[in-house]
Amino acid sequence: MRIAILLSLSVCVLPAQQDPGWEGTRQAEFLRLAAGGRMTEAHALGLTLLSEAEGNSSPRYRAAILQMVGTLDNQLGRFQAAETYLQQALSLIGAESGQAPDLLLAVLSSLAEVKVNRNRPREAEADLQQALDAGKRYFPNGHRRLAQVWDSYGLLHWSRGQYAKAEDAFRQSLTILEREFGPAHSDVNAETARLGMLLLSIGRDSEAATLLRQSTSYLQESLGKMHPAAILSFCALGAALAKPSPEESDRILREGLADWRRAGLSEVHPSIAQFTAAHAAALSNRGRAREAVEIHRRALDLSGQLLGREHTLVVRQMLQHARLLDAAKRGKEAARLRKEAERIRVARGYGDLSGQTIDIGVLRGVR
User: Fold this and answer.
1) What is the three-class DSSP state of 354?
2) Yes or no: is domain 1-136 CATH 1.10.579.10?
3) CB–CB of 124/113 below 8 Å?
4) DSSP string spanning 247-272?
5) pLDDT digits (tens, 9 = 90+) for 66-83
6) Which of 22, 217, 239, 307 is most buried, taking the most CB atoms under 10 A from its CB?
7) What would the mean pLDDT of 8-34 be, rounded to a whole number?
């Protein structure tokens, strides 16, 4: 899920508002609903606007609505639908890119994220290169429209394990946003949370926790505790505390994941899979192996639904689950799971996965 949902959605507002077909009140309501975490209502309104726009509005206006709905579907983990809407948007504005470069950058960046989510990084890179080329052609260096492009580049680099490049891209995005909006803005702190999650994934837990405490506080204040961006930042903070403070980590992750469900958001989502696994790790660190197994089983099921049962990351997580089963004195189940993981590893030609574990960013990266 894209944490900086306001950034993704707001970048398409200006070109749409400039269009004669833009009906400000209802489109603004869509953004208010999304910004308030009322995703189901926002999605329903977006589909209504899209239906009404068919055949009666300019291509640019319809593309803006498609961008809104597609971006929201990506947030909700509905990746196939998101890609369909965003491809339609790109087709509509293809011939108008010079007249609507900000919308073009928004669509290409969102589309690239969906392709990263669907494990197609080469296609995502092509979209982002096109977006960056257009951004340099139509906007001055450091323009706020380029923040989303750099953010999406960060996700792409993260998915490939290029952590230094990912950090640099996220920091470029953050620099642009801070200069544009100031330190207390929700987009700035959503990006801060993104950077914190990356640092967490590469073992820089202390730095990550500092950033995530900051972003969580600001996001909860500006967007509300139940907004997806605030929930994800809160969960990331819990994951950062898994080793130094497993009891606090358990509390935060339990509360954050419950908030996600109460908000009516889809659990079949990479961020939820990874934070569910982090919750299991926190419980294991507290010596609660049996409870950790049940929680981790849920994370494994979610990962399998997202990536497929034979994906290398899912196989790694199977081995992690086997270790938890051993700790819970369920050795026979652990042995069967290891045997299945080994069968998949050999059949798919994977290398030795026995010493590897799933870090907090890995599912975020490949989705």
Assistant:
1) coil
2) no
3) yes
4) HHHHHHHHHHHHHHHHTT--S-SHHH
5) 998 998 888 766 788 999
6) 239
7) 55
